[in-house]
Amino acid sequence: MKSLPNTENIFQCNRIYSFFFKYQQVVRLVGWMLRFKHNCFCTKEEKTRRELASSEFHKAEFKLVLMIQQESFEGEDDKKLKGLAVFVHEDKILRVKTQIVNRRDKEDFRKPMLLPSNHQVVLKLIEHYHKKDLHCGLQILQSILREKFWILNGRKTIRKVVSKWLICKRFSSKRLEVDSGPLPENRMRDAAIFQITGVDVAGPLLTRGNQKAWVVLLFTCAVYRAVHLEIIPSFSAVAFLVGFRRCVARHGRCSTIYCYNGTNFVGAANLLHGLGWNKIIRHGAANAID
């Protein structure tokens, strides 16, 4: 009877990593090898032939991390780990003791598993999470990985993986900068407050009891940082003129008003055009008003 091969020696072979391009494929390979080992040392009734269960997948991932650590580190006293609170956990995996070790949370989150930065499986791991989380940015990807793994020089390693993706070039591309044009004259001239004014309407807002809709009339000074708010009962031209008169009564007359072509503004303009301006001019001239 031939003796079975030692699976520990099989796991030490680095060539198995180069056969697959995806991280999950490497984990599944380790899982099937562990399944084979289990079936070789159990009875016929205890043998498992179904697809890998989630528990077997997680067990294979822990085994893969242990293999990577054995290949990359000499133990918790390795010179590469200077400055980190590294310890050997009860599962024989090197973990990092973080500041949230006393938090009531998952073991991997409180004590993440240590991984090197230059291992090809670690690069596949980063690529897997990057694609899984829809090509997220550098900071988000690092935070996601930190929930389970502590990668040495993690930010630099993640940047190296992310930079290879064409879709992620937006993170390193230069911003399009357009030279700002000169400000219009009415933004720079010497004027009184609200002499140059922009007006807009916001709303509707429902009052208490939902009985009536109120609209906020917004006046913005174009020269100074000043805003005036008026509450009007509707979008009608008459309501706008009432709110405009209250603003003028408080801040003085406006020489220029900017607005969009809303129906209330157009209606107010039509009402103003219908006034007897000749009579108003004669009255103003008699009272020294230009």
UniProtKB/TrEMBL annotation:
- Pfam family membership, one: Integrase_H2C2
The record's listing under InterPro entries reads:
Integrase_H2C2, RNaseH-like_sf, RNaseH_sf
UniProt domain Integrase zinc-binding: residue ranges: 119-172
Q: Annotated Gene Ontology MF terms? A: nucleic acid binding
Cited Gene3D superfamilies: Ribonuclease H-like superfamily/Ribonuclease H
Q: Which SUPFAM superfamilies match?
A: Ribonuclease H-like
- Its protein name is Integrase zinc-binding domain-containing protein
Tell me where on the tree of life, at the top rank, the source sits: Eukaryota
Lineage of source species = Eukaryota, Metazoa, Ecdysozoa, Arthropoda, Chelicerata
